[in-house]
Amino acid sequence: MLQSLAAFKENATSAIGNAGLQRALARAKPHFAKKRQAAIDLLPEFEALREAAKNIKDHTIAHLDFYLETYAAAVEAAGGTVHWCSTAQDARAAVLKICRAAGVRTVTKGKSMVTEEIALNPFLEANGITPVETDLGEYILQLRGETPSHIIAPAFHLNREDWEESFRKSHADLPADRVFRERRDLLTEARGKLREKFLAADAGITGANFLIAESGTSVIVTNEGNGDLTQTLPRVHIVVTSIEKVVPTIEDTLTLLRVLARSATGQEMSVYTTFSTGPRRAADTDGPQEYHVVLLDNGRSAMAGTEFQDMLRCIRCAACMNHCPVYGAIGGHAYGSIYPGPMGAVLTPMLSGIEAAGNLPNASTFCGKCESVCPVKIPLPNLMRHWREREFERHLSPPAQRYGLAIWAWFAKRPALYRAATRAAALGLGFMGRKQGRFAWLPFAGAWTKTRDFPAPEGDTFFAHYAARQKARSQ
């Protein structure tokens, strides 16, 4: 289950002590980074593509109203319907209205973080409609009653035995002697159950990686083919997505696809890249009778024109979290948010408020790796810094932190005093810790020494060393 935003520190402590989670992270976290680097090494023009992708998204965001209207008109022209939704509640209501009008009792779902964002599954269940997740990772999480811990690999936090345990608890007809040795065995077991669901579903719900304005097309990328079955077999196809997914043309989409798969999974392209435009036409042999797009804002338009506008470029590749040392240590559930990692640390405060999500922008080492791997060059550390500034301005940060910064600022504005004070502190601590070389406890440093020792300074301050070297060079 999704944990509390406010309990991030407790969640993180629990995650670090969770042996099963740590084993899953140790196995999985190097995988994405290595595959991404290998894919990029084979594409000399990758940096040029990153710049092109950034420019496409910046242009679209600058003219978002125009491209959204163009997209909606194209959807309507192709026989589909667009439902404009300001809030999560509006989006849920729109989906329910579509389902009731079509007599829907069961829906299959392709992977969609936006449906997670609006908590669609429990809402449908509460209204007598059964949702069935068809992505392999999402399916096992639905059996377990859990939320995704990663935006492209939802069951990132699980080990093979966790999957097997869930199948044995949920699949009553599973033989006791059935052995799951490989991923293929897990996939075969899930496929056998899901085929029945695909054929019985009245409606299919997918997300969208991109929305093409010129044609009214929705685009999804998958590696399992479940997205295609979800949107072609049922009578009704419902796309639940958000406004920043729109791009002007198919050519722009192809550019973005070239950086998406490489950044996400290290593939040149995903196994399936599917373009859907409207309902079934007279000459089509299959496809839905109805095509709906539920277009969600949920705070995104409020980001336009602010210091957080760059976040609207995000194409949900998860490269930032795949390379984040904090995410790699605690996994996704500890964040208490649908969107974890660096991108979640920026997006979640916008969706939930900095009052609730103030811990997330602070859960960063600011190493800058997230920005360096982002395929659309989002300055994630800078955006997290903006949230920290807002948290400080509103007096939401702990009093000790604010007072500590105030004291530091007082000294920092007086350079001579600052240098004298820091030099005295370094020399004093160095003298006191000269025998052990470390401190197990220090006043005002309890949060540090609670879990690790504080190293004793071994010499003078950086300022003093730098001044001495500059003086030596000038002589």
TrEMBL record:
Signal peptide: none
Domain of life: Bacteria
Pfam families xrefs: Fer4_8 (PF13183), LUD_dom (PF02589), LutB_C (PF11870)
Domain 4Fe-4S ferredoxin-type residues, every copy: 305-335
Keyword annotations of the record: 4Fe-4S, Electron transport, Iron, Iron-sulfur, Metal-binding, Repeat, Transport
InterPro entries according to UniProt: 4Fe4S_Fe-S-bd, 4Fe4S_Fe_S_CS, FTHF_cligase-like_sf, Helical_ferredxn, LUD_dom, LutB/LldF, LutB_C, NagB/RpiA_transferase-like
NCBIfam families documented for this protein: LutB/LldF family L-lactate oxidation iron-sulfur protein
Protein name per its UniProtKB record: Iron-sulfur cluster-binding protein
Organism classification: Bacteria, Pseudomonadati, Pseudomonadota, Alphaproteobacteria, Acetobacterales
